[in-house]
Structures are given as structure tokens and as C-alpha cells.
Specification:
The protein contains 13 helices and 15 strands. It is α+β, with helices and mostly antiparallel strands.
């Protein structure tokens, strides 16, 4: 029995931040020192981001409000609303994204309707309310009131992995389970002007977005690719507890993102991958670049640079992560789902393609997943050029040919 991610959809708020415009706003704030101004320009210009989305409509230079709360476009001043004001907006705007992403994921899943959903797992670290997003999704989609609901809160950028791991566990325990996983993050609610390097770095990177997936072990038809959730692992690096953190302050949540983080990842990424890759001896002994796809959470450009160099990956293998960063920024837990969506939408070069996924968060925590992208092909393995050799090659990679044929027919 395999547990498959059968649909994956994303959603973003309509307001777009253009990176150079956002840089100029932050660099022009009256309280900045010369060093602060220089840091703003450096961080924004080197982030490898073109555009980001925000749920704060008044952050746009084209939006005019009679009573601005976050940004006064008339004076060009960034304002400092309280944590309560920020969280009140989270309650309203995140609900929209949770519902939009969830609706799209259920609608896109062949053979599944809202009535089939048995579990809902929601994820966010950028706000709180109760009844929470899990409740809102059940009500808005008209799910069965007895659906089991879970919310993973305040875990940070890696939280999509515990959510998907829990979904797999539910499906392993009950082959008929259908789990809806939804992550929505409104990071832009917590940006502020500051001379603090961590705060400036966060302001240059973070953005808003949501992603939702349907996970099940049910045998269903599939005209497009699916992702088999094979293995998950969690590793805490021996250093870095104080280098990445997420705290609650009086004027929003406060990010600690030390410049030492890329170096920590560079020094410990190989050891962090070992427990995951050990599940597949063929993959574990091959060069990292032999894994078809790498779904790396783009916490920042320098993190992607370190991963690419340390593991000797190709530019193409990092393209889904870099394009996600360029077009959307860092949306915390939802971001790696955007990367997986890009990989899922790529044309298949083989019927089965390995995916190694990874995200980093407070701790410093490294969450990893080993997945398989399975794409339906018109011919069965024995009918492909090479005949029996093609089937035996599947066996070398630990794939049961009968399971492979079932996956293609599914």
C-alpha cells in the first residue's frame, strides 16, 4: 500500500509587492541609521526576489486609506500596529486563503469529493484564532461535521513536513482515510522598520501564501502525476538553537534569523540527510545529483546557494526552489509546497522520479522527506523499448514491477 499526495494547489492574496519599491519604502524610514539604510538596500537587492504577495492591501503604493494602520502611503511611513491588530487581520485574511487553497485542492483531486474527506490538518505560525482554520475549512467546504481536525501552530518554516507526515500516518492506519492538509501563512503582517539586521532580513524575504494537498491511500484514477510519500525524518543540528527563532512581541511576531544560518546548513546538511536516504540503499550510495528533483525550502538565496554547492546539485535541480523564491518570497511553511507544486507540474522524463524535500526552521530543525513522483505513461514497462530489461531495471531501484503497473493503471 502506498500513500499518495493526489492533488496540490496554491493560493496567494491579490496585493503584490515589487521588491525595488518595497526596498525604497523601508530604506526611507526616518528612524534608520546609515548602517540600517545600507543593510536594507543590501538585503532587499541580494534576496533574489522580484515579487511577493501580501494580505495587507494598504502595503501597496497604489492603495489609499483614510485611516492607515500598517502603511501611510501619503507620508511614506511604516506604522506599528499592536500584535492584536495584526492578529485580527490574520483571522480575516488567512481564513480566505485557507478556504481558497482547500477548495482548489479538493476540486482538483480525481475521484474525491468533499464528502470523502476524513481528516483536516491546518498549519500556520503567523497568527492564532479559535474556532480555528481547521473549523473554518470544515464549515466552508461543507465537510462532514465528524471530520477529525488538527492544527499545527507556531512551528515555523518546516511545519508542512510534520503535517504531511501525520497525513501519511493516518492513511497508513486507515487505508480509506482522505486527509486534507492546508498551510496558510501571513508573514507580512509582522514586518516593521528597524535597524536590527534580523528584522531587516525578514522584511526583505517574507511574504504571504497558502497551499493545500489531498493525501490518501485509496486506489483512485489518475490522469496526471501523483507524489508517493515514502519516508520522513527529523534532525536537530548540534548548533543553531539561538540562530533561528520566532517570538511574540507587543508589535507583532519577531523573527531571529542569524546570518550564521547558511553556514550551519552548509556544515550539517550531509549529516541531516543520512537518516532519510538510509531508507533507500540505492539512493544513499549514489551522488546527490542522481536524485531527480530537490524540493528545498527557499529560506533565502544564500541557503539555496549553500545547498547547491555542498551537495553538488545542478542549476536545474534548484530551479523550482529559486523560481518560487523569485516570484513569491519566503511564505514560511507553505513555501516548500509551492516548490513541490512546481515539480509536480514539470513534464515527466521517467515514469518514476525521486524527490528529496527539505526545510529548515527554529531550533535549528531540519525536516526531510523522500518522495516519488509517479506519472502515468501510455505503455507498460514490458512494452517500452528494452522489454524485460526495463522491468529488471525497476527491480534494481527497489520497485516492484507489479506495483509499478498498478500505479500506471490507477
Amino acid at each position: 500500500m502506498t500513500v499518495n499526495l493526489r492533488s496540490l494547489e496554491t493560493a496567494v492574496p491579490p496585493t503584490i509587492l515589487v521588491q525595488p519599491q518595497a526596498r525604497d519604502v523601508f530604506a526611507s524610514q526616518p528612524g534608520l541609521t546609515r548602517l540600517g539604510q545600507r543593510l536594507v538596500r543590501t538585503c532587499f537587492d541580494s534576496a533574489a526576489i522580484d515579487t511577493r504577495h501580501t494580505a495587507v492591501a494598504e502595503m501597496s503604493v497604489d492603495f489609499h486609506s483614510e485611516d492607515p494602520v500598517f502603511f501611510d502611503v501619503g507620508t511614506g511611513l511604516l506604522l506599528s500596529p499592536s500584535t492584536k491588530v495584526r492578529n485580527d487581520l490574520f483571522t480575516v485574511e488567512s481564513t480566505k486563503l485557507f478556504i481558497e487553497a482547500a477548495t482548489k485542492a479538493v476540486s482538483a483531486c480525481e475521484g474525491i469529493t468533499a464528502a470523502d474527506v476524513t481528516h483536516v490538518i491546518t498549519v500556520s505560525c503567523t497568527g492564532f484564532f479559535n474556532p480555528g482554520p481547521d473549523y473554518k475549512v470544515v464549515r466552508a467546504l461543507g465537510l462532514n461535521p465528524s471530520v477529525q481536525r488538527y492544527h499545527l501552530g507556531f512551528m515555523g518554516c518546516y511545519a508542512a513536513f510534520p503535517a504531511l507526515r501525520a497525513a501519511k500516518a493516518f492513511c497508513d492506519a486507515d487505508p480509506h482515510a482522505v486527509v486534507l492538509v492546508v498551510s496558510a501563512e501571513l508573514c507580512s503582517l509582522h514586518v516593521r522598520t528597524s535597524n536590527n539586521p534580523d528584522t531587516i532580513m525578514g522584511s526583505s524575504l517574507f511574504a504571504d501564501g497558502a497551499a493545500a494537498a489531498v493525501v490518501t491511500a485509496r486506489e483512485l484514477p489518475a490522469t496526471g502525476p501523483v507524489i508517493v510519500l515514502d519516508e520522513f525524518e527529523t534532525v536537530l543540528t548540534p548548533v543553531g538553537e539561538d540562530s533561528m527563532a520566532w517570538n511574540i512581541g507587543d508589535e507583532g511576531f519577531e523573527m531571529v534569523l542569524d546570518s550564521y544560518v547558511p553556514r550551519i546548513i552548509d556544515e550539517h546538511i550531509v549529516a541531516a540527510l543520512e537518516p532519510l536516504l538510509a531508507h533507500n540503499p540505492v539512493v544513499a550510495t549514489a551522488p546527490y545529483r542522481d536524485i531527480h528533483h530537490w524540493a528545498i525550502h527557499p529560506g533565502g538565496r544564500s541557503i539555496l546557494d549553500k545547498v547547491e554547492a555542498k551537495l553538488e546539485l545542478t542549476e536545474e535541480q534548484l530551479r523550482p526552489a529559486r523560481e518560487t523564491l523569485r516570484n513569491y518570497g519566503n511564505m514560511s511553511s507553505a513555501t516548500v509546497m509551492f516548490v513541490l507544486k512546481r515539480i509536480l507540474d514539470l513534464p515527466a522524463t521517467e515514469a518514476r522520479e525521486n524527490i528529496c524535500a527539505m526545510a529548515f526552521g527554529p531550533g535549528l530543525t531540519v525536516e526531510t522527506g523522500l518522495f516519488t513522483k509517479v506519472s502515468p505513461l501510455p505503455l507498460l514497462p514490458a512494452e517500452v523499448d528494452g522489454g524485460a530489461d526495463a522491468v529488471s531495471e525497476l527491480d534494481v531501484f527497489g520497485v516492484d514491477p507489479s506495483e509499478f503497473e498498478s500505479a500506471i493503471r490507477a
